[in-house]
Design goal:
alpha+beta, seven-stranded mixed beta sheet, 30% strand
Length: 864
């Protein structure tokens, strides 16, 4: 972290009352009996100090025989409706969430409805995401009027119970954690006509950032690049995805009830259209304004009156229930407000290493967003800063291998130009990129005061989270790390885990127009004051097992959060000390018994979840079995889903004697704006032809988009094109006689296209597609463009080109309806640009954006 000496740093904690939730906490089903002896994760952490070992994957085995499954170990495209064999192809019919937010704690109930409308019994397998801060503590399965509560058990034991029930022909449900934010739901023996609902409950704490609270409800798991992943443990990655632009094949809905002790000032969603019903100044109900939207994360943001945050101490005292091993345990959480902003003169010089993902999954909309982000990030650098740019896909390259460069306008312009040339392709070899970025030589001794920061920009569609976390933690003394997730279905577990390992902050950029805001946030974090050497002491308050044990520097935009337990009754003070620009600071927060509230029951799960997160990081760094055992104990003791504990629900009735049936993987929608190339890249070297599940229509969709990538990557002609004609007045030499290349050609086509009446158009100018992202095949667009130019043959002259020898480039935006808008004309004088805009006004074609967001097409107009 930045350790800047600050002046007039103010740190305070304001205790506020947390609004009472209108609904009682859900009953916790009986857990597998836990040890009656109190378990101390902090003791385990002390024992693990300095331990090293072989890195483990962030998941448990469960993929079956590796050799048997290796062929399908990759995501694949699926077109629903082809090749029916009597089995239900899309068993998930609806998914919905009901969110209750009371103060800073959100309780979420997710309901998934499965139905078999086919003719054969099926087992449904559904991979879905959740919040990275989610503490999943209850699961239930409903069949008709009967509800079966799930039990928590060790992962392997839960899997065996499920498999036994499946073979015996009993309905059963199994919930497993694949990553901290990716779960797999298996539902066995769904008979023809069956309707089965599976609900899960999780809780999370909402931490404000710059006084803005944000609830994120992830909706879809993007295709993962499987290079470097474990084929045995990570079979969940071999999941079908619908082609880009295909809407989700199930109903999606979410409702939020928000209740705070402070009046709500602003409430909005940057991701979905919503309707808001304000019951009181501090209570609001939120619903979706329309159907759909299940292919991108739901984000809700709100701000309280006066930009206040609900800081202070939250307390809950247990009564010896099952979610504590039958023991009476008390829990607390402390949220501290951050200090104020600094003066610019207090900001030290810095070195930035920007590591940009340019793999196939970034092709199109995500890479366009990343480019916009990089332009803003580089544009914020100061002359005293140094920077470097590294790119990674299947391979990695660095802009300045000898070391970082001064942030001069010329160097920044060169970096932007280099980034603009990227089109996206290949695998996502994140580890190679990280290793290359950290190998860049540091600045000379004279620049020793420069603080180095690595900024990773990626969609996170990889399966090597554990390796990445370990590498970043092991190199923490060399650089801090900030992570930017790009797109509408980001792997937030990777993004937040990398930032946590690098003592930085995570950011998610949903759309290109949000890039400037995200870049500003990073700049604000780095430039803002910090309180260093933060220490916490408890006076008259018997606290223990506090997490985190090593406190980060306190930044100006994000409060400090502590979770812990305490013995006896609530009372005393929590004292905070730290070093700032004005020297050492001391503050204290009063702990009062009146702050103990029953609606804070989620603190037990949040405390356990925070410790699981800490121990999982240790496991990723080689802590091995001791860390795994500690995580398992926490999961069993607190009825919590982890990588080593799962929920299993088994019905007593036998409905499918012999357990015969087929397994159906629920196809997932492609995250909004993500290209079909993400699946092609995720397959790795196996390519398109080697995958048994890629049907012809889905394969064709990938091949068409791949041809666009090849076109964009094709080298320029060896000889520069001749100068543009000095005049465009003559129809035989003007744009109205333009020659348009057929889609899929790599360079300027020499094949003439026939005009109206079968006559060959005169050869004057050539129009080619230089780049196309997030749009369908461009043939229809080129045909419409040619027709528009031909119809304008008798129009007024377009004026002089100025004798330029450079091609003219048109940058077009195309919406889902095929309507064209000119974004930019490069290389033309004002008169020629006006003419082009006039002639192409109102142009539309069958070429359309693949998603809800506009696609982009760049055309090159040059002389033959």
């Amino acid at each position: 972290m930045v350790r800047t000496h600050l002046r007039h740093v103010r740190l305070f904690a304001l205790a506020v009352a947390v609004a009472a939730s209108p609904a009682a906490s859900p009953a916790t089903p009986a857990a597998t009996p836990a040890s009656s002896k109190p378990f101390s994760p902090s003791t385990v952490l002390t024992q693990l100090a300095g331990r090293t070992g072989v890195v483990s994957f962030n998941g448990a085995a469960g993929g079956g025989d590796v050799a048997a499954n290796d062929r399908s170990f990759a995501p694949y495209l699926l077109v629903v409706g082809e090749g029916s064999d009597g089995s239900e192809r899309v068993p998930l019919k609806a998914t919905s969430a009901v969110v209750d937010i009371a103060g800073v704690i959100a309780h979420v109930q997710v309901s998934q409805q499965f139905e078999n409308s086919g003719r054969r019994p099926i087992e449904a397998v559904y991979v879905f995401p959740a919040s990275t801060r989610a503490a999943v503590h209850a699961v239930r399965m409903t069949i008709g009027t009967r509800t079966i509560e799930a039990n928590i058990d060790r992962r392997q034991a839960a899997r065996e119970s499920y498999e036994t029930a499946r073979r015996e022909g009993k309905r059963a449900a199994l919930l497993e954690q694949e990553r901290a934010n990716v779960f797999t739901m298996n539902v066995a023996n769904i008979m023809p006509g069956d309707k089965i609902a599976v609900a899960l409950d999780y809780s999370e704490m909402l931490v404000p950032e710059n006084a803005i609270y944000e609830l994120v409800y992830p909706t879809v798991v993007g295709p993962r690049y499987t290079g470097g992943a474990d084929p045995g443990a990570d079979q969940w990655m071999a999941n079908p995805h619908l082609p880009a632009g295909t809407p989700e094949p199930y109903r999606f809905d979410i409702r939020v009830h928000l209740e705070t002790a402070i009046p709500i000032r602003e409430l909005s969603s940057p991701s979905h259209a919503i309707t808001v019903d304000y019951r009181t100044p501090g209570r609001a109900d939120v619903r979706l304004a329309g159907p759909g939207g299940g292919n991108h994360d739901f984000v809700l943001r709100y701000r309280l009156a006066g930009d206040k945050i609900q800081s202070g101490v939250l307390l809950w005292e247990g009564q010896g229930d099952a979610a504590g091993g039958g023991r009476r345990e008390n829990f607390f959480a402390l949220m501290m407000e951050p200090p104020r902003s600094p003066q610019p003169a207090e900001i030290p010089p810095r070195e930035y290493i920007f590591l940009l993902d340019v793999s196939g999954s970034m092709h199109g909309f995500p890479l366009d967003t990343a480019k916009e982000l990089m332009r803003h990030l580089l544009g914020r650098l100061r002359p005293t800063d140094y920077f470097n740019v590294a790119l990674f896909s299947g391979a990695a390259e660095v802009m300045s291998p000898a070391g970082s460069m001064p942030a001069t306008p010329a160097q920044i312009a060169g970096a932007v130009a280099r980034i603009e040339r990227q089109t996206g392709g290949g695998g996502t070899e994140l580890m190679g990129g990280l290793e290359m970025a950290y190998r860049i030589p540091k600045r000379a001794a004279s620049s020793a005061s420069v603080s180095r920061t690595v900024v990773v920009v990626t969609d996170g569609f990889v399966g090597v989270e554990a390796q990445a976390f370990r590498f970043i933690r092991e190199h923490l003394s060399e650089a801090n790390l900030f992570a930017f997730g790009i797109g509408t279905g980001v792997n937030r577990g990777l993004i937040e885990g990398m930032a946590r390992a690098g003592q930085g902050e995570p950011f998610v950029v949903l759309r290109p127009e949000k890039a400037a805001e995200a870049a500003h946030k990073l700049g604000a974090y780095v430039e803002q004051p910090v309180l260093t050497n933060v220490k916490v002491r408890f006076a008259g308050f018997d606290a223990y097992d506090v997490a985190p044990q090593q406190l980060p520097d306190l930044m100006a935009r994000r409060p400090l959060i502590l979770f812990g337990k305490y013995r006896g009754t609530a009372g005393g003070q929590i004292e905070i000390t730290g070093s700032g620009g004005a020297g050492w600071r001391y503050e204290k927060v009063e702990v009062r018994s009146s702050d103990v509230r029953p609606q804070n029951a989620a603190l037990r799960w949040l405390w356990a979840r925070r410790w699981v997160e800490t121990l999982d990081d240790e496991r990723a760094m080689g802590a091995g079995q001791p860390a795994e055992d500690a995580i398992t104990t926490l999961g069993l003791d607190y009825h919590l889903l982890t990588a080593f504990t799962s929920f299993v629900a088994v019905d007593s009735q036998v409905v499918n004697a012999g357990g015969q049936g087929s397994t159906v993987r629920q196809p997932l929608p492609m995250p909004e704006g993500v290209s079909n190339l993400s699946v092609q890249a995720a397959m790795g070297s196996g390519g398109l032809a080697g995958h048994a599940y890629l049907n012809k229509r889905a394969k064709r969709a990938v091949e068409e988009e791949s041809s666009l990538e090849n076109l964009a990557r094709s080298p320029a002609p060896a000889a520069a094109p001749p100068p543009m004609p000095s005049s465009m007045r003559a129809p035989k030499q003007g744009l109205d006689a333009a020659k348009v290349s057929r889609p899929g050609k790599r360079a300027v086509s020499d094949e003439p296209l026939e005009g109206a009446g079968g006559e060959e158009e005169p050869s004057g100018l050539v129009v080619t597609v230089a780049r196309a992202t997030s749009v369908g095949p461009t043939g229809a667009l080129l045909t419409a463009l040619r027709a528009a130019l031909r119809q304008s043959a008798g129009a007024a002259a377009c004026g002089e080109t100025g004798g330029s020898s450079k091609p003219i480039r048109l940058r077009l935006s195309i919406d889902a309806g095929g309507h064209v808008r000119i974004l930019a004309v490069v290389g033309a004088n004002s008169a020629l640009e006006s003419c082009l805009r006039a002639r192409l006004a109102g142009l539309s074609s069958a070429t359309a954006a693949l998603g809800k967001m506009p696609g982009l097409v760049e055309l090159t107009i040059s002389a033959r």
